[in-house]
Amino acid sequence: MAAAAAAAAVGGPQPPQSELPAPGLALDKAATAAHLKAALSRPDNRAGAEELQALLERVLSAERPLAAVADSEEAAAAGGGGPGAAEEEALEWCKCLLAGGGGYEEFCAAVRAYDPAALCGLVWTANFVAYRCRTCGISPCMSLCAECFHQGDHTGHDFNMFRSQAGGACDCGDSNVMRESGFCRRHQIKSSSTIPCVPKDLLMMSEFVLPRFIFCLIQYLREGYNEPAADVPSEKDLNKVLQLLEPQISFLEDLTKMGGAMRSVLTQVLTNQQNYKDLTSGLGENACAKKSHEKYLIALKSSGLTYPEDKLVYGIQEPSAGTSTLAVQGFAGATGTLGQLDSSDEEDQDGSQGLGKRKRVKLSSSTKDQSIMDVLKHKSFLEELLFWTIKYEFPQKMVTFLLNMLPDQEYKVAFTKTFVQHYAFIMKTLKKSHESDTMSNRIVHISVQLFSNEELARQVTEECQLLDIMVTVLLYMMESCLIKSELQDEENSLHVVVNCGEALLKNNTYWPLVSDFINILSHQSVAKRFLEDHGLLVTWMNFVSFFQGMNLNKRELNEHVEFESQTYYAAFAAELEACAQPMWGLLSHCKVRETQEYTRNVVRYCLEALQDWFDAINFVDEPAPNQVTFHLPLHRYYAMFLSKAVKCQELDLDSVLPDQEMLMKLMIHPLQIQASLAEIHSNMWVRNGLQIKGQAMTYVQSHFCNSMIDPDIYLLQVCASRLDPDYFISSVFERFKVVDLLTMASQHQNTVLDAEHERSMLEGALTFLVILLSLRLHLGMSDDEILRAEMVAQLCMNDRTHSSLLDLIPENPNPKSGIIPGSYSFESVLSAVADFKAPVFEPGGSMQQGMYTPKAEVWDQEFDPVMVILRTVYRRDVQSAMDRYTAFLKQSGKFPGNPWPPYKKRTPLHPSYKGLMRLLHCKTLHIVLFTLLYKILMDHQNLSEHVLCMVLYLIELGLENSADEESDEEASVCGPERCHDSWFPGSNLVSNMRHFINYVRVRVPETAPEVKRDSPPSTSSDSVGSLQNSGTAQVFSLVAERRKKFQEIINRSSSEANQVVRPKTSNKWAAPGSAPQLTTAILEIKESILSLLIKLHHKLSGKQNSYYPPWLDDIEILIQPEIPKYSHGDGITAVERILLKAALQSRMNKRIIEEICRKVTPPVPPKKITAAEKKTLDKEERRQKARERQQKLLAEFASRQKSFMETAMDVDSPENDIPMEITTAEPQVSEAVYDCVICGQSGPSSEDRPTGLVVLLQASSVLGQCRDNIEPKTLPVTEEEQIYPWDTCAAVHDVRLSLLQRYFKDSSCLLAVSIGWEGGVYVQTCGHTLHIDCHKSYMESLRNDQVLQGFSVDKGEFTCPLCRQFANSVLPCYPGSNVESNLWQRPSNKNVQDLIKEVEELQGQPGAFPSETNLSKEMESVMKDIKNTTQKKYRDYSKTPGSPDNDFLFMYSVARTNLELELIHRGGNLCSGGASTAGKRSCLNQLFHVLALHMRLYSIDSEFNPWRKLTQLEEVNSQLGNEEQQPEVPILYHDVTSLLLIQILMMPQPLRKDHFTCIVKVLFTLLYTQALAALSVKCNEEDRSAWKHTGALKKNTCDAEKSYKGLLSFVISELSKGKLYHEEGTQECAMVSPVAWSPESMEKYLQDFCLPFLRITSLLQHHLFGEDLPSCQEEEEFSILSSCLGLLPTFYQTDHPFISASCLDWPVPAFDIISQWCSEINSFTERHAEQGKALLIQESRWKLPHLLQLPENYNTIFQYYHRKTCSVCTKVPKDPAVCLVCGTFVCLKGLCCKQQSYCECVLHSQNCGAGTGIFLLINASVIIIIRGHRFCLWGSVYLDAHGEEDRDLRRGKPLYICKERYKVLEQQWISHTFDHINKRWGPHYNGL
């Protein structure tokens, strides 16, 4: 039957397209499938195959869905199943057919059984949390999914968790990428042997069905694609198609998840070329398929690497610089979108030689590149699928499907080759894409999986020319955004550079391609091929030269630039990513001697490219003025390969260096950058805006410095070591524009520099020389030494956290280069140079992180100012390092004053660079040093201490690095040539130091003082510096000499390039364009460097003859020169050190020093001060004095302020203002006096001008969070753990109130309890007072003040004008004089009965609200504020809304809340006693006045006043009348503390002390009775009867009323009359404690029951009457408090154990009143015994509130919560958070859980904390506080092993709980001080 149906279906007429297949058939899919499977299993299966083909043809016909794509509306209207229905049907068919008649689920399970799961291969998309372990990774890109990571063993490894940016895949099980030791348990087993072979018939159907299915998918993709018109991809259409195809692609993705067996079938299908050919060529007559094929061909056409069509380069439309050969090939193949360029056009382009003069880019010289240019040809499904994936801009689903297949090895290779084949096409699509960011991520997601595998990369490189393709594609990409370079010769420059303003560079669009390139270069085998291939190297250098000289800056000289371009970001990023990182990649493979050849290749082509560049920009010898580029990648390639060659490959440096002329050119641009840095720091570029400073900073910043400034300085060091030193030194001073300054004359004219910049430029030049001569980074330091030097420099600037150190220390950007951050060398060096300072916690202070600080010996021996200067981004860091150094010297007692930067010994130079030291021994430098020393000594202008410091540093360097000890005899007898160098005889610094110079001829302006002098007689034939040749002794000649030398070298034939001839100096030459009025004068000098130094010593020390050669006293000094006393100190020390070294180096110097010191030194030549100079000096002096004055004033002010704050905080706190006990008995009439902090007047608070306390009102639910068990709750981290809130204080009180309201009269219920456990109003003050009218005007001014405040003035918020504490209301102070209080406190001798009557009468008086005074208005408004502080639901508990009982209840509960909270702040008991800190700033007294005033407006009917029930016996009959209505709450169910507050607040204020005591005594009797009743319910029947009897005997003894036994037995007998003890059922057992009650335990129970009441009462008494609280031990708290409250008779002796009952003082006979109280309960328990019992047992022993306990390791929280779904919207939230008070899981900012415009966190903060919420943000490890309408980031309580936070989990290191921080958080929560301690608050607009 099934067969017949199937045959009919296949052979019968085709059903109309709009309908689904016949219903019978639909039901019978399974049967059909089974039949076909059987048919195909036969040996002769042709018939079956045809049948299946026909069925598939019909089911998978591509026509229906496309109608739907084109116009789904019509299709739907036509009555088809709408779009999607047909596809679903087709998918159902496919599933049935695959399963071959069985169930699809079972089929899946069957296939999975054959999965050899050796690899994990889990693919994830962006934002997935994965792990990376550097210890286990072979490739730097290795990553693991969380599951594999936790299943493997990575203890002690260097791993981190990270959020994937582009997506990735798990590498577990792949030994090419990671070490096997890191595999997880699942993937360790090589399981291929155990997995059985796949049965043939299981996957047979798949092999038939899948090709058709994939072809159908491809047809959909073809059909849906429309070539975008006018270059605007129709993204909407593309997305529509993709949405329709969602189910199909998901189906494929599910197939890949079935494991290895299914993947290999898919691989076969995707890579089989025959299949593809059959299906795609056999289109035949089908019109629809034809149409889609045409679309495919059109799409293909634009895939060749044609030229950037849309770019007009310099007005001529042409491809880029001279790549004509390519152009032809490109166009020949692809006519796609380039139709508009016909062939005649092409010839024009060839002819247009606009840029063609420079060497051609010979890209396609060999035929192998042909394929890169051509249009793509597809041979398999895989190729076309990838093609469409690219066309559709990498849809996520497709990417995931393609990646899921990767565990299949065969597929991996095929896919990689396909990917490479499409590489150029990917680049084209990426450039056009609008979503280039997303697309980039998806591309990298794929490529990183392919290219991280060395084996695969090598294979593709060999078989598919991967390297050629990549380099070519990169070149093409950049060619689309080239512009003409304006460097040097603007008109004739032939050089082109990238335009950094282009989107391509600005948006980093190139990064996927560059990152792939870097990735493959990290493989040795691939890099070797690259370095061996000359053609590739040429092309690559050509690519690099596009970046040479980009982003040129021209100095603005006139007005400020209007628009600051920010292109420099793009430029620096491009050089780092596209040039430097590939360079580091290549360098990492040039580490050994065998790789010399590679270096030679790179250096050769690099020099060629440089030569081309110099030609292209027409460079001769002088750089163009006022322009600088920071980008010289060719120079840097050259430098880095040289460095590597010498350091690792033992190459001879000279063999890879060019000739002198090239070296001279090479040094120009890097030197230009160094000079420009000095100019920028001297503010000479200020008109170019801030961005130029940004460039100067980026250039030296830690991520860039080792690819930018370090190679530049190294290259200059190499040039300096090989060029003539005089030439080099004079070049430096000329570049820095300070040549004119270097004259002996006191005045000069500088033609190229303004006077105000001279000093800093001179400092810059000298500092640069010092760095150049003392830096050894590339000149011989080992990697560990470099790391150590870098680390010391960073630590000296500031203490650093571990992560910032890792970030600040430059590492080779290529991760394979050895020094990996976090590697062992890093940690070991760190522990050698630094000490760890653990984070400290100042309560209320800022949260500190764990810091590393340099060890003392590092300061002592390793502090290197040169390295610090080189590495500082901000100049202030140098100062900071010096300050820290000074502090260290002071502290360790090594040097008290202001030290100079210490001189540090250097690592020895590598022999190749010995020539560098010639700079120190060249006359030009010596002339400069001499001149500067002289100028400093003579106090010429524009010289600073810094200049002197650097001069001395250079002299010292010269002495340290002098040539071999020269024989002293050798004077100046060295041939005739020397005589002409009139300044110095030789070039050795040691001998030149002692050389005396007598006369110097200078050119000076005619105004200069020197001109007036008589020139000495010309006969003077004094020693060497005789007058005949003194004219040349003028540093101006430097420049002339340099020019000449340059010309000479250029003109000289290369044969004699090695002999350096010293040209004769011309005397004629003057500064270019110098003003004419210069005249020549001759100065008498008669000094040598040594004599100048000695005079400097005198000048610095301010004493004559201060220098005395130390070796005259102690000859030892000369033998052991390293003397610690010289290592730290100021200039004097430095001079002494230098003189000592000079004496050591030659006997001659020693002798001369002694001689100079013997001559009595003439006084320093008097300064000739011109009027102008005098003026400036006076000005300076005045300024200095003014500065000192200001400092003094500030210091004074600060100390004043400090003392004021201290007094304000402590002494003037309102405690002095609250009426206090006055010791003297005479009534002194004195009112309380208040100071107003706004107007400063002090006076009493009065009715018409009241004073108020600054208070902050806030709703609080802290009390409600108390629980009754000791161990705190922990945060749930598994599904099982849950937190149920029913044991919290708030819940218990809620239950009690609703229980009472069920059975008793509402108004009475509302008097029997307190509310405010949740949402109670807490009032706190800073203790400062102000006039209320002053406050109003203050608020007005705040309202008009437009400054953005952290608070909202409209809500009444402000900060205290004095201490800036946050506040939102003012609590009026009740006017009162101390007299009253004094009278009221006198003990009266009235007996209890009278007092009780008085109390009742006073309560009965109706409280009239005082007349309308200002005070009463304020009282009313503050009451309103208090009500509005909390939400309505926390105020309205009555059943009748708006009943006055509500207000009454709310008001006394406010008092209760404040007392209870103060008790908690004191630690839950009053043992510590005293007026604790809380007392100082307490405002309870004022609060009581306000509350009492309002409470007295409601009079309690005297009928219902509980006071009567407590103090009078009633007649029996009153109970009978009111049976029908609900009864009142029995007095024993009342909350005694609430009664206390009601009684006191109903009394007129101020209260008398004896009335207070009376009320307390009466209430204590009730409390005690409640305790007895509760005790009786808690014990079991036998105990009860036993006690009943023992007590009954005592009943008639005299003290029965004061013994608990008698009372207890009476209570039991009374209560037994009712049904309270009946119904002993199961419930009963729960309450009965198993312990037998001993008298001690009963006494303890009673005391514990009463203690909370006593504590609150004592606190109240302390506040109302100002009595101190006594301190006590915990066990005696009860007795101390009761005697303090007057409950204990004073004569009480403490010799026998204390009994609580002795405090009782019954107002009426005890047994009568108890029996009356019990009868109320009995009448209730008649009906509700259970509830009656529950209400009697009040749990009054609450523990202190705590936040939830957190787990030790943060990962525990993170793993559970970051994937947890939200209970409201059942999605995984983007920003999950958890409440630390109750453990609720919420979505932060989640719109999904928004209710009435409140987001979930804000809502929860209102429900859980009445407006205060503490949330842990799971994805950031940070805690956020919500307080009302504001929020702030509090910080993190989880720190890593180095004591730092990891906000946003950026570093992903393991984090551990920091208990101290958590304690601080909890403390701030309990004490309600979030508002005061945390400073950065902002409004959240309900959006959290």
| Low-confidence regions | 1-27, 62-83, 307-369, 814-819, 965-981, 1012-1036, 1052-1076, 1163-1170, 1207-1229, 1377-1384, 1517-1523, 1625-1634
Strand order of the largest sheet: 22-21-23-24-25-28
Q: In angstroms, what separates the terminal alpha carbons?
A: 65 Å
- Please outline the major beta sheet: 6 strands, antiparallel
How many H/I helices? 74
Query: How many strands appear in the DSSP assignment?
Result: 28
Characterize the overall form: flat
Q: How would you state the average pLDDT, rounded? A: 78
Helical content stands at: 40-55%
> Percent of residues in beta strands?
5-15%
Look at the helices and sheets and give the structural class: alpha+beta
Our Rg estimate from Cα atoms comes to 46 Å
How would you explain this protein's 3D organization?
By secondary structure, the chain is of the alpha+beta class. The protein is 49% helix and 6% strand. The chain is built from 74 helices and 28 strands. The strands form eleven sheets. A six-stranded antiparallel β-sheet has the order 22-21-23-24-25-28. A three-stranded antiparallel β-sheet has the order 3-2-4. The chain has a three-stranded antiparallel β-sheet with strand order 17-16-20. Helix 3 (29-41) crosses helix 6 (85-99), helix 32 (660-681) packs across helix 34 (709-722) and helix 65 runs parallel beside helix 69. The longest helix is centred in the middle third of the chain and has 41 residues, at 1171-1211. The protein is flat, with a radius of gyration of 46 Å. The two termini are 65 Å apart. The N terminus is likely disordered.
